[in-house]
Each structure stands twice: as structure tokens, then as C-alpha cells.
TrEMBL record:
Keywords: 3Fe-4S, Electron transport, Iron, Iron-sulfur, Metal-binding, Transport. It comes from the Bacteria. The keyword Electron transport applies. Coiled coil: none annotated. The keyword Iron applies. SUPFAM superfamilies: 4Fe-4S ferredoxins (SSF54862). This is Ferredoxin. It comes from Streptomyces violaceusniger. GO terms for molecular function: 3 iron, 4 sulfur cluster binding; metal ion binding.
């Protein structure tokens, strides 16, 4: 599974960071970004910054995507 955030739709609710803190983080620009191996993928952000989701975080990421008020979290299922 991969995940990315469309920052143009982010409402800064912080729900994603609370639900899956190892995968999501709010940056200095007050927008949510994905993390991979502890590193914030914020350059440039958006679809070009897709993070691999560890198996143990997949349920939390699915929950965060479903509950996101801006519907800006995009989950990509992989075979």
C-alpha cells in the first residue's frame, strides 16, 4: 500500500496525524504530509510524494483516509 496527500485540499484538521502518527505529520506550513522511514516527504508534496505504508499501519491509514474531512488522503492498494 502507498499513500499520498493532496495538500490543496488539506483542512489541517490534524486527524490523520492523530490516527497514524508514523505515517502522517503536519509541517511548518500547517499542511499534512506523509512520512516514510521517519522522513517527511514535503518536497514538493502531493502525488509525487507517495509513501510506502508499513503493514502495521495500514488499518490506521485506511481509517485516516476515510475520516479525513478534506478527503485529501489517497491510498493506493498494491497487489
Amino acid at each position: 500500500m502507498k499513500v499520498w496527500i493532496d495538500q490543496s485540499r488539506c483542512l489541517n484538521s490534524r486527524q490523520c496525524e492523530e490516527t497514524a502518527p508514523r505515517v502522517f505529520s503536519i509541517a511548518d506550513d500547517s499542511l499534512a504530509y506523509v512520512r516514510q522511514n521517519g522522513r517527511l516527504l514535503d518536497q514538493p508534496g502531493g502525488e509525487t510524494c507517495q509513501a510506502d505504508v508499513p503493514d502495521e499501519d495500514q488499518d490506521a491509514v485506511d481509517t485516516a483516509a476515510y475520516e479525513c474531512p478534506g478527503q485529501c488522503i489517497h491510498v493506493i492498494e498494491q497487489p
